[in-house]
Amino acid sequence: MFTGIVEELGEVTAVENLGDASRFRLRGPVVTEGARHGDSIAVNGVCLTVVEHEGDEFTADVMAETLDRSSLGALAVGSRVNLERPMALGARLGGHIVQGHVDGTGTVLERKPSENWEIVRISLPADLTRYIVEKGSITVDGISLTVVDAGPDYFTVSLIPTTLDLTTLGRKQPGDPVNLEVDVIAKYVERLLGPQGAAK
Predict the structure, then answer these.
(1) 117, 130, 134, 147 - which has most CB atoms within 10 Å?
(2) Starting from the edge strand earliest in sequence, which strands make up the sheet with 40-43, in order?
(3) Paired strand residues for 155
């Protein structure tokens, strides 16, 4: 379980093609402190398992399913990534409930800078639009954000200087892919309501 509060900007230091999977080596001094084999670390919002850990780097295997459903397949050596360790029991939930299970990918469509913040418009896959509401929560590349405007095939978020400085969204440009995870509570409500809820 994560909160969508990014702990640090890490970096991809190696990518190994394993055929139907890839092995990534990533640098992140904060998230690797005390890391052990089998621990979970969210990388751009994708929950990955630590395979090896040495110094301030760790490796993680990414299977084809994850590469197909997320933007991790586009990562290369030198790519910057958002990193977060799982929430500790009893810690503050600074963002919202994030599982690290990506629902799909979107594309940065537009950036509108202002004096103290920036509005970013992101495309939304058709099958996810029903989960997005104004002032609701969404996870973009592992970042817990509040939806400003929910359109038919897009949504917008406002980014404060801290988010722009300390996460990948400060560097993403129009055309760049991002990982999206909708609020899991909305998905459970839909499931409980059954066909009548899904049809609306």
Answers:
(1) 147
(2) 46-49, 40-43, 80-84, 8-17, 21-27, 57-63, 52-54
(3) 122, 150
Are the C-beta atoms of residues 88 and 9 closer than 8 Å to each other? no
Which string of b and e fits 2-20 if b means at least 16 CB within 10 Å?
bbbbbbbbbbbeebeeeee
Using DSSP's 3-state secondary structure scheme, residue 191 falls into helix
Alpha helical stretches, state H, 43-131: 64-69
Q: Which residues pair with 158 in a beta bridge?
A: 119
3-state secondary structure of 172: coil
Vertex 85, ends 84 and 90: CA angle to 5°? Answer: 120
| Structure letter (DSSP) for residue 95 | S
For residue 143, the SS3 value is: strand
pTM: predicted TM-score of the whole model, two decimal places: 0.91
pLDDT tens sequence across 54-97: 999 999 999 999 999 999 999 999 999 999 999 877 777 777 88
